[in-house]
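Support case: zinc ion complex. Customer-provided input:
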Amino acid sequence: MHFSPSTVQLTTGGKALRLHLLSTGAVAVKTKFREAMGKGLSSTLRFILDRKFTEWLPVWVLVIEHPEGIFLVDTGELAAVNDPAYFKSSGILANWFDTTQFKFEVDREEEVDRQLLAFGIGTKDIRAIILTHLHFDHTDGLRHFPDARFLVARSEWERPFGDLPALYPPHFRPDLLDLDCSWGAFERVAFLTEAKDLALVHTPGHTHGHCSVLLRTDTCHILFAADVCYSEQQLLQEKFSANSASLPAARKTYASIKAFARQYPLVFLPSHDAGSGIRLQQLATLPGI
Ligand SMILES: [Zn+2]
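Agent response - structure generated as follows:
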């Protein structure tokens, strides 16, 4: 399954801004992992026993060609994920979980470095790599960027949930950001540009320190929402996925996103939502909030 990249040309403060949404292969998860049945342990058991996988879903990364430099949000998956020994270094439990609960389809050509090159962007041209959280399908591509600057929320780094540090490349020593500003309904953000039009935003639930990336353009606001949920529909219908670090935090995050979207038209882009590509292209904002 191949998801085509989406590119959109916009402006910020009157200056050109170009965005590319690229899917680094495809993933499938258990249907009851995407949408939880029950709570806590019962929800975990239900998805583990579930024999049905979802359709193929994208693994988006966002490239922001901003007047202040090129930012990459998350690094996506690698073809190596299908190597039977890929997760062995993370221990027996992680190896069992990650080889039985997920399925991947990734070609070498879909890895982030190759797709960036297709847009004339070399891995050394990236000003900073912003990580929403530390799950392997967001961090595996780190190995393509030995010289990059990495930005991670301090709260995610200091209290990770389900990360696999054995898979990090040795050069991964991120700068830790304190989210001590606010932006509209978002109470904990760190601005990433001088223009204060790009920020890392705390959107906890999936992990304790989970973040999204918020961008203001002259047309609309855009939220790369990572794993806040699996689809725009899920947010609108108040449905939650299983295996959250905190369900109350996930509920509060949904409320903050909806409150922000009532203030400012917001294009909402989860990492594993097949609809994110077309919504970015059409700048389709969250409806009926
Ligand atoms: Zn995740």
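The longest helix spans residues 247-263.

Case will auto-close in a few days if no follow-up is received.
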